[in-house]
Write a structure and sequence with these properties.
Blueprint: E1 2-4, E2 8-10, E3 42-49, E4 52-58, H1 60-67, H2 69-87, H3 94-98, E5 101-109, E6 112-117, E7 121-126, E8 141-147, E9 150-156, H4 157-160, E10 173-179, E11 182-188, E12 190-198, E13 202-204, E14 218-224, E15 229-234, H5 236-239, H6 243-265, E16 272-280, E17 283-288, E18 292-297, E19 312-318, E20 321-327, H7 328-331, E21 344-350, E22 353-359, E23 361-369, E24 373-375, H8 381-386, E25 389-393, E26 398-402, H9 411-421
Parallel strand pairs: 6-15, 9-11, 17-26, 20-22
Antiparallel strand pairs: 1-2, 3-4, 5-6, 5-12, 7-10, 8-9, 10-11, 13-14, 14-15, 16-17, 16-23, 18-21, 19-20, 21-22, 24-25, 25-26
Helix pairs in contact: 1-2
């Protein structure tokens, strides 16, 4: 990454994962983490952007001043002259020079490089593990994902260019392309970089190759490395006129109506209780579905808080809020196990405090007839409060212990959790 604060410097990073646009007001100060980590080189923190729970904003000016004092001094003294000599233009003409440049996000499909003007790109995100399939939709509509609390239809760039489909992998990226208030996710094989190119190296598509109608997505060609590297520039406006994208947007509209109809029709059954069933050790447990706020994956690392209550495993950032996390095995005096991919965090709202509990696996949402639910044997006062009922499903040979979420933690522990979450 080339940072120019008077003197261009190149910083080698492990990987450029994505490009995101955020409103300035979303950048939070670092005061709240200053007591736990060295935040001197940070200007702020972003939460839940680009598929990442937390992104730290690095202060390159301070970094350069601290680590490269001589270069920083040189930049302060000779920066304008150096920049002018390097670019071959007057410093006062910098704004005019920017007008002669394009900033492009480049990505690849079938080892061919494409790009789109960064103004038409809302953000670039990783492909989630789960994509909701849309019934009766065309094959080139990959499905729907939730992004920023709205549904985003996905199409494959391979579909746009009639290329053979390919399995998505860790390099695949979703480029969120916008046109006004409409957005669609275009799935690419990989995102390469952000290019800043002069307009003089960008040519219109040759007339012989330019086509009208659906195949006019590419309207310019960028010549880089003295013509050895050609990048096809896509038009966001033309993409939204493509039948593939239209199909995806139509699938989104139909899915939204379908979901609404399902909600209207599903009035529930008073003779049943709907439970979220999860596993701990060799047992099955259930909690009322209305008590579960959400279910999320266990992150690779939880942040351990000094002097936190012993029953708290740590805290995580869940969409901008600090979430205390408890190991449900410890809560029920079961032996501990190593972290694995099947484990999940079930999030409850307990006396006004959002709290997460780690379970071995969440297996299903089950409607249990009320006549199959009975009181548990009374073994102790705490057990009777926490595990007061059991679902005896004789035909299936299953016995599911039903947890009363309000008794997962007591009043005193709730105060301790509240102090962690604030």
């Amino acid at each position: 990454m080339v940072i120019d604060l008077g003197q261009p410097l190149g910083f080698v990073v492990d990987k450029v994962a994505s490009v995101i646009n955020v409103e300035p007001e979303r950048i939070e100060g670092v005061e709240e983490i200053r007591g736990t980590i060295d935040s001197e080189l940070l200007t702020g923190v972003l939460k839940e952007v680009g598929g990442y729970s937390m992104v730290m904003v690095l202060d390159f000016a301070k970094l350069i001043a601290q680590e490269f004092a001589e270069i920083a001094a040189l930049a302060r003294q000779k920066g304008p002259a150096l920049t002018a000599a390097h670019e071959g233009v007057e410093v006062e003409g910098e704004e005019e020079a920017d007008g002669d440049e394009l900033q492009l996000v480049s990505f690849s499909v079938e080892e061919q490089e494409y790009a789109i003007d960064i103004a038409g790109v809302q953000e670039i995100v990783q492909v989630p593990e789960s994509i909701v399939q849309v019934p009766n939709s065309p094959a080139h509509v990959l499905g729907l994902i939730t992004l920023r609390e709205r549904l985003l239809p996905l199409v494959s760039l391979r579909s746009l260019f009639a290329l053979a489909p390919r399995e998505l992998d860790e390099k695949s990226r979703i480029v969120v392309v916008t046109l006004g208030a409409t957005a669609v996710g275009v799935v690419t094989d990989a995102v390469s970089e952000v290019l800043r190119v002069r307009k003089e190296v960008v040519d219109p598509m040759p007339p012989m190759l330019a086509r009208d109608g659906e195949l006019s997505d590419i309207n310019q060609i960028c010549r880089l490395d003295e013509g050895k590297r050609l990048v096809s520039i896509l038009s966001a406006d033309n993409m939204f006129r493509h039948s593939v994208v239209k199909d995806a947007l139509e699938a989104l509209e139909n899915m939204s109506e379908h979901e609404h109809d399902e909600i209207e029709e599903d009035g529930g059954n008073e003779d049943e209780e709907q439970m979220v069933v999860f596993h701990l050790d060799n047992g099955e447990f259930g909690v009322p579905i209305e008590s579960v706020q959400e279910i999320v994956r266990v992150p690779e690392a939880l942040t351990h808080v000094p002097k936190a209550p012993s029953f708290v495993e740590g805290v995580i950032n869940l969409r901008g809020a600090v979430l205390p996390v408890i190991d449900q095995r410890k809560r029920l005096d079961l032996p501990s196990i190593e972290r694995n991919d099947r484990q999940r965090i079930m999030v409850f709202l307990l006396r006004g405090v959002r709290t997460g509990f780690i379970v071995d696996a969440v297996t299903e949402v089950l409607k249990i007839p009320r006549d199959a639910i009975e009181e548990s044997p009374h073994l102790s006062g705490e057990q009777a409060r926490l595990l007061g009922r059991v679902a005896n499903l004789e035909r299936q040979g299953r016995m599911i212990q039903l947890i009363e979420p309000d008794h997962l933690i007591d009043d005193e522990d709730t105060k301790s959790l509240a102090s962690l979450a604030t």
